[in-house]
Amino acid sequence: QVQLVESGGGSVQAGGSLRLSCTASGDVAATHSKGWFRQAPGKEREGVAVVSAGGNTFYADSVKGRFTISRDNAKTTIFLQMDNLQPEDTAMYYCAAHFSGTGWLRPKNYRYWGQGIQVTVSS
């Protein structure tokens, strides 16, 4: 089992920045690929950014150039630096870990999930 705890959400005006953190603990938490996903009201959950176990990063087209995913040296905490936030980025953001399958940004390919944290961007 892997436990994931997110922090850093909140409310910001358009053009602002937020930094999300997710710390993993439990069974071989450092070895798993980890990523950020989001779900807006009435919409399906979608992939935002992922860092593979090997350190490769993958981004949704909608956030490329604005969001940056990174991790600490222990590989147990990942971060999502979100710059130039827009109202369409408003969603519940989830941390996920343990990838298997094809498609790095497909939510169904991740086994463990955090509780989620709200990000609200006002215009």
Short description:
The chain has 123 residues and is mainly β. It is 0% helix and 52% strand.
Mean pLDDT: 95
Stretches where pLDDT falls below 50 for ≥5 residues? none
Instruction: Please indicate the percent range of residues in DSSP E strands (runs of 2 or more).
Output: over 45%
Quaternary state, please?
single chain
Tally of alpha and pi helices? 0
Secondary-structure element pattern, one letter each: EEEEEEEEEEE
Secondary structure tally: strands: 11
Biggest sheet descriptor: 7 strands, mixed
Q: Radius of gyration, Cα only, in angstroms?
A: 13 Å
Secondary structure category? mainly beta
| End-to-end CA span | 40 Å
Helix content: under 10%
Shape verdict: globular
Q: Could you explain how this protein is built, in words?
A:
It is built from no helices and 11 strands. It has 123 residues and is mainly β. Strands 2, 4, 5, 6, 9, 10 and 11 form a 7-stranded mixed beta sheet that branches. It has a 4-stranded antiparallel beta sheet with strand order 1-3-8-7, with no helix packed on it. The mean pLDDT is 95. It is 0% helix and 52% strand. It has strands spanning 2-7, 10-13, 18-26, 34-39, 46-51, 57-59, 67-71, 77-82, 91-99, 110-113, 117-122.
Give the topology.
Elements: E1 2-7, E2 10-13, E3 18-26, E4 34-39, E5 46-51, E6 57-59, E7 67-71, E8 77-82, E9 91-99, E10 110-113, E11 117-122
Parallel strand pairs: 2-11
Antiparallel strand pairs: 1-3, 3-8, 4-5, 4-9, 5-6, 7-8, 9-10, 9-11
